[in-house]
Amino acid sequence: MTEPVLPQQGLFVTGTDTEVGKTWVSAHILRHFRDFFQREKNASRKNGGDPSARPHLKAHASKVTSADSTTLPDHGRGRLHRACARKPVLSGAAFDGLCLRGEDAVRLAAATGEPMEQVCRFQFAAPISPARAAREAGMDTTLPRLLEACKAPSDGWTLVEGAGGFLSPLGSDSSLNADLAATLGLPVLLVARLKLGCINHTLLTLEAIEHRGLRCAGIVLNDLHDRRDAATHKEMAQLAGCAITLMPHGRPGPDWADWLNSLELVAQTHTR
Prior knowledge:
Elements: E1 4-5, E2 10-15, H1 22-46, E3 82-86, E4 89-91, E5 94-95, E6 100-101, H2 103-112, H3 116-119, E7 122-124, H4 130-137, H5 143-149, E8 152-153, E9 156-165, H6 177-184, E10 188-193, H7 198-211, E11 216-223, H8 230-240, E12 244-248, H9 256-262
């Protein structure tokens, strides 16, 4: 097991609001990466563990595809070997008789094969903001503690998922999702619910992301209610200025593979 570190490569997944389908999107992306690393591992075994026979993972020039030719960046210390998920805090978890189990944490853990407790360190039962839930429970979920909960193996490609919208309170010190994202410095994936007003919400969130000095790697319009609003999708694509895809019914659409291919997940170097 490699030493846990703050993620050097991956994505920060956020939303325009709560209940927009962030975890559905995250789980699909994580399964894609998990499958890729498994194929890469199998290819290595087939070639006797010879690294030269494996796809080279070039730093700062990566693209993700659903094909076997997928290339991913190095993290500066060696090759990437696994997909990791981190959702440092959530609220609204249910007690199963043994422990609190948030639905989002369960889904993310299933997507990567990691223990749920490793994926999500802080879980609260109250269906209120994680910041308020932590304060009411007397728990320390300040920004440094949330960052600690984001640490993952240094050979991992890590997806960090926030809670609620980009400017929603996250930590017990009133730190925001935006503060966590800015400290991590990962590219941001924005999830929006396809509905009336979503263009305004999305563009406002994009401005907030850019204001924090972060790069938006792409946008997912989640069509939770089968609106099939191609006009809004087209208009959003014209206004947003970054890769965008429509996800019908919370599942990948026909352009999913092409959209993944258009995401440039650039390796990040953290200065702490």
